[in-house]
Each structure stands twice: as structure tokens, then as C-alpha cells.
Design a protein that fits this description.
single chain; 177 residues; alpha+beta; three-stranded antiparallel beta sheet; 10 strands; 16% helix; 32% strand; globular
């Protein structure tokens, strides 16, 4: 008994699925060829990332530099961006006290895929769109979804934060108040 041609989109998808999962079909469906010609089935391999290397960073006060995103902060780069060829970035941030809300409380967002902040020491009061004001203390951790509007409202004179961001290079957009 001869197999009937697939007459519906669902049947065509099933035929393609069977083909790619190793099942043999007696007759090739013409709808499979149509799907392939429209670019819906891709055999291209994803681009391989360069091999990552080990990054080791030991604490040294002289490694904190005032060369980062914010003038009121000092950053200690942990070497992650170089080791991952730009896949991720990690640094320890010391916010310089005393806090000046007129300088630090600027609504902004980062064009990132992932951002995580962990409070190593002290405290920081933040505002995040959809979350409101939150006091983060030593041991607190949070993620900020891509492009979420946020700001720092206040912080202790001794605050240190660990921040991990993907990708290493990203754009920050400051918003009008």
C-alpha cells in the first residue's frame, strides 16, 4: 500500500521531524522541500566561541580604579571579560561616600542580556521599575532584567558590590527625570 502525500502543514512538520530523528520514510513529501526552501530548516552550525581561559584575581586595594561607568565609583576588574573574550564582565564596585543623591539618583538602563549584583559589604538603596524601592544589605543579591529602568537612591560609605554582566561591552542609557 502506497503512502499518501502530506496534505496539511502539521503533516508536513511531522514528516520533517521523522526525517531528522532518524526515521526513514518511504516517500519524500514535497511539502518538506517547500519548508526547506523557505529557510525554516537550517543546517548551519552556530558560530563557535573562542576557548575561554582561567581568570584569577586577588584582592589588592590599588586595583580599584575610577575609570568606570560612574564618577562616584571605583571598579576592580576581575579579568572575566578578557578570559571569556567579551562573553561576560565581572567587577567589584566601591561606591565612594558619602552618597550625594543629586549625583547618583539618575534613572537609566543598561542594554544587556544579564546583570546580577551581590552586596559584599555595606548597604545600597535602589529603585527598579516594577519593584520599587529596595534596601539591599550585605549578602543581598539581585538580578536586573535587560533594559529595566533603575537607579541608586542611597548607599553606605563602605559599600562594595560584585556585579556580573553579559555581554562585557554594553550601552547605558540615561533617561530624563
Amino acid at each position: 500500500m502506497a503512502k499518501q502525500k502530506a496534505t496539511s502543514r502539521a503533516a508536513a512538520k511531522t514528516a520533517v521531524k521523522k526525517k531528522w530523528t532518524g526515521h526513514k520514510s518511504a516517500a519524500k513529501s514535497s511539502s518538506r522541500k517547500t519548508i526547506k526552501s523557505k529557510g525554516r530548516v537550517s543546517t548551519a552550525k552556530p558560530k563557535a566561541r573562542p576557548k575561554q581561559r582561567i581568570a584569577i584575581s586577588h584582592h589588592r586595594d590599588e586595583d580599584f580604579k575610577a575609570d568606570g561607568l560612574r564618577a562616584y565609583a571605583k571598579y576592580r576588574d576581575l579579568g572575566i571579560a578578557d578570559a571569556t573574550h567579551g562573553l561576560a564582565q565581572a567587577h567589584v564596585i566601591r561606591l565612594v561616600g558619602p552618597c550625594n543623591p543629586a549625583e547618583v539618583s539618575k534613572l537609566h538602563y543598561h542594554d544587556v542580556e544579564f546583570q546580577m549584583v551581590y552586596v559584599l559589604k555595606g548597604w545600597v538603596k535602589t529603585y527598579m521599575e516594577g519593584q520599587g524601592e529596595t534596601l539591599m544589605k550585605e549578602g543581598s543579591c539581585w538580578t536586573q532584567p535587560p533594559r529595566i529602568k533603575h537607579l541608586i537612591m542611597d548607599y553606605s560609605d563602605d559599600v562594595e558590590l560584585l556585579e556580573v554582566i553579559l555581554p562585557a561591552e554594553f550601552k547605558t542609557v540615561e533617561l530624563a527625570a
